Amino acid sequence: xxxxxxxxxxxxxxxxxxKAFPNVWCAGCGNGIVMGALIRAIDTLHLDKNxxxxxxxxxxxxxxxxxxxxxxxxxxxxxxxxxxxxxxxARPELTVIVITGDGDALAIGGxxxxxxxxxxxxxxxxxxxxxxxxxxxxxxxxxxPGGAKATTAPYGNYExxxxxxxxxxxxxxxxxxxxTVYHVQALxxxxxxxxxxxxxxxxxxxxxxxxYYGRFNKEGDAVAMIQDIRKKAVSIKTAADMTEEQLKGKxxxxxxxxxxxxxxxxxxxxLVDRLAGKEGE
Amino acid sequence: xxKNGSKARLxxxxxACMLGALxxxxxxxxxxxxxxxxxxxxxxxxxxxKRGGKFIQMEDEIGSIAxxxxxxxxxxxxxxxxxxxxxxxxVENIGYAYMTETPCVIVNVQRGGPSTGxxxxxxxxxxxxxxxxxHGDYTAIAVAPSTVEGCFTETVRAFNxxxxxRTPVTILLDEVLGHMREMMIIPExxxxxxxxxxxxxxxxxxxxxxxxxxxxxxxxxxxxxxxxYNITGLTHDRSGFPTAVAKEVEEKLxxxxxxxxxxxxxxxxxxxxxxxxxxxxxxSYGTVARTALQAVKMARERRIxxxxxxxxTIWPFPDEELKRILSxxxxxIVAELNMGQLVNEIQRIAPRHTEVISVQRYDGNVMTPQEIxxxxxxxxx
Lengths: 281, 381
Prior knowledge:
Chain A has 281 residues and is of the alpha/beta class. In chain A, 36% of the residues lie in helices and 16% in strands. Chain A has helices at 31-44, 64-67, 80-90, 102-108, 110-119, 164-171, 184-196, 210-216, 222-232, 236-239, 264-275, and strands spanning 52-56, 71-74, 95-101, 123-129, 175-180, 201-206, 233-235, 251-258. With 381 residues, chain B is α/β, with parallel strands linked by helices. Chain B has helices at residues 13-23, 38-51, 61-73, 84-100, 127-132, 148-165, 175-179, 246-261, 264-267, 288-301, 319-326, 342-349, 369-380; strands spanning 8-12, 28-31, 54-57, 78-82, 104-110, 141-143, 168-174, 181-185, 230-232, 270-273, 280-283, 306-311, 313-315, 331-336, 355-360. In chain B, strand 2, helix 2 (38-51) and strand 3 (54-57) form a beta-alpha-beta unit. The termini of chain B are far apart. The interface between A and B is large, with 42 and 49 residues.
C-alpha cells in the first residue's frame, strides 16, 4: 500500500462545518462513515477541492454533498447520473463523483444507471446500499431481500432483487467494487481506485438502516447491524477458496470487476480531433 | 455560406433554430429522438464535434434536460429539443432549473396531444404547459416564432433571456414551422446581440450563488472556477443551503417571480400589423400568425378595418402592452390550434368594451385564412 500523506490533518478542511450542519442522518447511520471514507480518499489523491464536483439525487445518502466543501449539486430523485453526465461532458477535466442510494440509483434512476455504465463515462458512483427507502420512512427497495418487512411490504417482500454489482458489470462499467461501512479502510481504498480508474466506477457500499430496516426486521441497533454486515462480507480473494455452500448468505467485497474499456469523453475528444479543420456549418 | 458566396439559405425551421443556437454561443446539446423535433438533434450531432462543442444523445428526455442543466452549471450555454411527450417528461427537471436559476433553452416542436397524439401533425396545445408545466410557483419565459427566420432570431433571443435572467426559456415551435422551408439570410457575426450571464466580481469566500442584487438576478459562477457552492432543488437561502425559514422561503419565491416580471418590458415583443385604424384585431401566435396576416389582407381588400397582433413572447403574458393595444378595438379574434388556451389570457385582460371571439382548430391541420376571414366577416355584422 502506498503511503498516505494528508493535505490536512482534519476532515474539517473538506466539510462545510459552519454552514451546513447539523446533518439530517440518524445517530449510527452508515452515511457518515462513507462520507469520512470519501473525504480521506480525496485527501489521499491530493485532489484540488475546486476541481471536484459531487452530485447526488434524492434520499438520505443524497444529502451528503450539502455537507462537503466541493462544487456540489443536489439534484432530483434518480437523476444524479444524468446531471453528472452533463457536468462531465461539459468539463472532462473535473473529477465527478456521484453519491446515490439503492432506491435512487436502481429504481427511479435505473435507466440513467445502466446507460452511464454503458457509456463508461468517467464518473465514480458511490451507491450507499441500505436495502430500504429511509427518507420516506421505510418502504421496500429494489435491493430489499425476499421476505424482509417494510412499510409497503408489511407481510414480507415478495419481489426479486437487483444486484447492483452484476448490473454494472453487465452494462459495461470498467470498475465495479463492493465495500461496507464496517471495512472502512478497505472502502477508502476502493473509492481511491474508483476515482483513479478512467471510466465508470461503481462502489456499491453495504450500509445499515437500523431506524427502519433493522427495526422492522429485528436486526437490532446500528452496532448489531454493522456486525452482521461484517459476518456476511467475504473478500473476493478469500472467496476463491470457498465452496458454494460456504458462500451461501454471504456477499463478495473488493474489486469484483476491472477492465480497460475506452471512456466516453475520450471517445468524443477523439472524434473532435478527427474532425478538426473540417468545415463547420 | 452557400456555393454562390451568399449568406442566403433555404432552411427548415428546425435547422434555423439549431443554427440560431450556435450563433448564440451554444456549446452543449443533449437530446433524445422525437418527431417532429429530431432534425435539431441531428444537426447538432453533425456540427457540434466539428466546432469543439458537445453533443450527447441521452437515454431519455429526463436525462437530456438533466444533462443540459449540469452542463450549464459547468459554464456552457446549453440546449435541448423535444416535442410534447418529451416535454412532459422534462417538466420536473425544468422546475429544478427554475429553482436553481440555471440558464438553459428548451425547444418544444409541438405536435397534437394529449399522450402520443399526432406525432406528425401541427398543434399549439402545449401553450399553457410551457407556462404551468412544472409544479410550484414560478414565472416562465416562452417565445413563439412564426417564420424560419424567426426560428433563428428567437432562438438567439431565448439564449439571451436565459443568460440575462438566469432561467430556463422555452421556445415553442410547431410541426409545420419546424419542417417548413423558407429562405433566410444568416446574420453576420455581431449583427444580433449575444448576451452572456453575469459572472461574480467578488472573492470566492464572499460569493453566494443566489445573492440578492438590485435587479434580483445573481451573478453566476461555474463549477471548477474556484467558487465552491451548493446547488439544490430544495428551497434554499442565498448561499444555496436548504432552508425552511419562512422569511427565506418567501424571498426565494418572490425572486423567482419578480426577477422576471419586474423586467417584463425587456422581454415583451409584440408585432402589430394594420392596427392603426383597426376596429377588429386578430390575435395569434406561431404558425397561425401567418394565416392571420393573410386573412387580414383578405378583409382589408373588402375595406374591413382589421389588424393583426402577434406576441413573439407569449410568457410572461404581456398584460399591460396588450391592454393598451386592445383599448382601441371593439372585437378581438383569438385564433389558436388548440381548444382555447391563450384566449383565456385575453379574456382576463381585455377591456370591458372589447368582445373576445375564439377561433379554434384541433384536428391536426393548419388553420386556413378563410376560417379566420369568416370570423372577421361575422364580427363586422
